[in-house]
Amino acid sequence: MQENFINVGAIRTRYLSEGSGGTPIVFVHGGTIGDVSSASNAEDFEPLIAEIGKDRLAIAVDRLGQGYTDNPSEDEVIGWTMKGSVQHFIAFLEELGKGPYHLVGHSRGGYVVTRTTLERPDLVASLTIGDSNTVAPGGARNEGIHLRNPHKPGTREAMEFTTNAYYFSPETLSSASIDKKLEILATPKIRKAIARMGPGGYRVKHFLPDLAKDREELFMRLANEPLQRRVQILWAYNDPTAPIEMGYSLFELIAKHQPRTSIQIVNQSGHSLYRERFENFIRVLKDHLEGVTDGC
Questions:
Q1: In CATH, which superfamily holds the domain spanning 2-291?
Q2: Which portions of the chain are predicted below pLDDT 50?
Q3: Contact, 6 vs 89, CB < 8 A?
Q4: What is the predicted pLDDT for the residue at 295?
Q5: Alpha carbon distance 123, 95 (integer Å)
Q6: With contact defined as beta carbons under 8 Å apart, do 96 and 221 qualify?
Q7: CA 264 to CA 237: how far, in whole Å?
Q8: Tens of pLDDT, residues 180-219
Q9: What is the pLDDT of residue 292?
Q10: DSSP labels for the chain?
Q11: How far apart are the C-alpha atoms of 191 and 168, rounded to whole Å?
């Protein structure tokens, strides 16, 4: 597996890649810039990249300000919002120049890939959305989990508490994965992002209000116009942060105008379906990729 860096405008962007040929697939992780609780990054998808990379080019990217991708400029407010994350991702796909791509987004990454498909269908071959309470109608429950966490944010104990709450089988998240997340949280640029987004900062002033408006606009558009590519929704039945009802609501919203929409529900898995039920996830994802043709 290769670690790569590419300049997307002024942003040095990291991505992992494996394989070659075929229509490329790009995995997009969740989390939020400046979030001390998760440290989501491209390495979350390493097993998926290794497996899918046997048949085609597989890529996972660190989103703007997350993982080892640069932070946005401190005075560029839009870069600290989901809108900025979407814009950076679209620019990343353009800079790679290998499209169209199969897009797979987990959690908040599901919002990024859905927005990309809506705004730039020319860059997209197919869309897969996984357990995203950001793109699905309804209210998320993850904030309640973090509020109940008795440990200091950014510590191993805090991350283990979150894992126990998010996962059906917490042992699925390896100690090495937690080590990587703690390593990322300790980097100077992530510490700066946490300070920028922290109490009284950009999270409450810009990120959350902007996301609320963008979600309303997204739901209105999905209710009245089709996503122009085939859509697969993958949802964990036991996800405590995104109840199964949210997955059904998302399916109904998209399927109304896009008949080539499917939903797969997987039992006995928490939020990280791609990790907890890896074989199931790979099987349905490959079936989806093999069934995709150009066009609508």
A1: Alpha/Beta hydrolase fold, catalytic domain (3.40.50.1820)
A2: 294-296
A3: no
A4: 43
A5: 11
A6: no
A7: 10
A8: 999 999 999 999 999 999 889 999 999 999 999 999 999 9
A9: 65
A10: -EEEEEEETTEEEEEEEE--SSS-EEEE----TT-TTT---GGGGHHHHHHHTTTS-EEEEPPTTSTTSPPPPTT-GGGGSHHHHHHHHHHHHHHHT--SEEEEEETHHHHHHHHHHHH-GGGEEEEEEES-TTTSSS---HHHHHHH--SPTTSHHHHHHHHHHH-SSGGGS-HHHHHHHHHHHTSHHHHHHHHHHSTTSHIIIIIHHHHHHHHHHHHHHHHHS--SS-EEEEEETT-SSS-HHHHHHHHHHHHTT-SSEEEEEESS--S-HHHHTHHHHHHHHHHHHHH--S--
A11: 30
Q: Contact at 8 Å (CB) between 128 and 234?
A: yes
pLDDT at 283: 95
Task: Give dist(CA 283, CA 264) in Å, integer.
Answer: 11
The amino acid sitting at 199 is P
Ordered by start, the domain boundaries in the chain are 2-291
Q: Are 88 and 41 contacting, i.e. CB atoms less than 8 angstroms apart?
A: no
Axis-axis angle for helices 175-185, 156-166 (nearest 10): 130
- Contact criterion met (CB below 8 Å) for 192 and 71: yes
Burial of 96 (0-12, 13-18, 19+ CB in 10 A): buried
Dist. CA 11–CA 31, nearest whole Å: 19
**What is the three-state SS of 121-178?**
HHHEEEEEEECCCCCCCCCCCHHHHHHHCCCCCCCHHHHHHHHHHHCCCHHHCCHHHH
Using CA atoms, how far residue 166 sits from 5, 37, 46, 127, 214, in Å, is 31, 12, 20, 24, 26
